Amino acid sequence: MVECFCYHLAFRPSMATKPFVTRAEQPIAPDLNADRSIFHRGSSSFSSSGRRDLVFVVNPRGANGKTVKEWKKLVPYLRTRLGEHYNICESLTSGPCHAIDITREAIREGADAVIPVGGDGTFHEVVNGFFWDGKPVVNNDGEVHKSTALGLIPLGTGSDFARTFGWNNNPIEAVDRIAKGLRSRIDIGVVNKENGEYHYFANVADIHLSAKAGFYAARYKRFGNLCYVIGALQGFIGHKNKDLKIKVDNGEWELYPQVTSLCIGNAKYFGGGMKIVPNADPSNGNLELVILQDFKWYDFILNLHKIYNGTHLTVKNVSSRSVRSIEVEEVSSSGSIYVQADGEHLGFLPRKFHILPAAIEMIC
């Protein structure tokens, strides 16, 4: 059972009423346990008082348990900074994909914002919770104009999406952003999966070596951001550059020989601070495509500093272009080219990608 609570921030803890569980009227995600609780409200009188709900999604296992410890330290400041206008609904995730459930339920219940607390993994799940079956989730009243916003308190290992906005892992600054209430719409990338389903990403989708490196990096999270470098080096073991063909914006197929990595960015960073797609902008209506060709392991080592600071676009065999949609296939069709989005393994090529301009309102 998930430990979830909602605080009426003007109350002392001893005065809080007994929480009750709210559930969606329809199944939220077919692969999850229907008995799983989503979040609790402290009192049904909150809605009638005009106070707005902020749903904070916390991964208690994030950063080896550090995330939830930092979150508990942050709650008193939340009470002070946001208590006048908001109800704070805390929901601890119990496993993979639970944040997607929480987000969909919060949106249906009319939450003012859903705010992941942690790293890119939790953020990625919350972004996917804004959609279902290829469409945006709306509240139970069907009032699309009262959209739920997306927030972020970065506390995880990577926090790569936050870097594009120049945010650090300072939770106090994050709460202050929420209190200011400034919002703007951001684009969201979409991956078409083999089974016809859609998968959404706010940051970077990537193919081949970088995706394989991300797959391996998950084993070394205990080393912090160094896990991505370790993953890349392990990925080079037995790695072979592959000939790929791509179709951009429904144009003609183009051949790209000896591709090492292909990265599709809505935002700039991945891999714990690598500025892999330096020209990406999550509000310009485009995806930025970066392709590395014919790299050897020593090319990666020699150019690692340029990848981190975003100057690698001047390196030989690195190209970049803006796209709205892209299809990627392997010429030889081996079925072994890794695909990931925001660090989430999504299987293998072929895949299609496109952009949803201004898809989500974000607290910034």
UniProtKB/TrEMBL annotation:
Q: Which InterPro entries match?
A: ATP-NAD_kinase_N (IPR017438), Diacylglycerol/lipid_kinase (IPR005218), Diacylglycerol_kinase_cat_dom (IPR001206), Lipid_Phosphate_FormReg (IPR050187), NAD/diacylglycerol_kinase_sf (IPR016064), YegS/DAGK_C (IPR045540)
- DAGKc domain location is 49-195
Gene3D superfamilies given for it?
Answer: 2.60.200.40, Probable inorganic polyphosphate/atp-NAD kinase, domain 1 (3.40.50.10330)
> One GO cellular component from the entry?
membrane
Any Pfam family matching the protein? YegS_C
Q: Which GO-annotated molecular functions does the record name?
A: ATP binding; kinase activity
Entry's Gene Ontology BP terms: phospholipid biosynthetic process; sphingolipid metabolic process
Where would one find the signal peptide in this protein?
A: none
Q: Does the keyword Metal-binding apply?
A: no
Which of UniProt's keywords are assigned here?
ATP-binding, Kinase, Nucleotide-binding, Transferase
Q: Which domain of life is it from?
A: Eukaryota
Which NCBIfam families did the record assign?
YegS/Rv2252/BmrU family lipid kinase (TIGR00147)
Q: What is this protein called?
A: Sphingoid long-chain bases kinase 2, mitochondrial
- Upper taxonomic classification of the species? Eukaryota, Viridiplantae, Streptophyta, Embryophyta, Tracheophyta
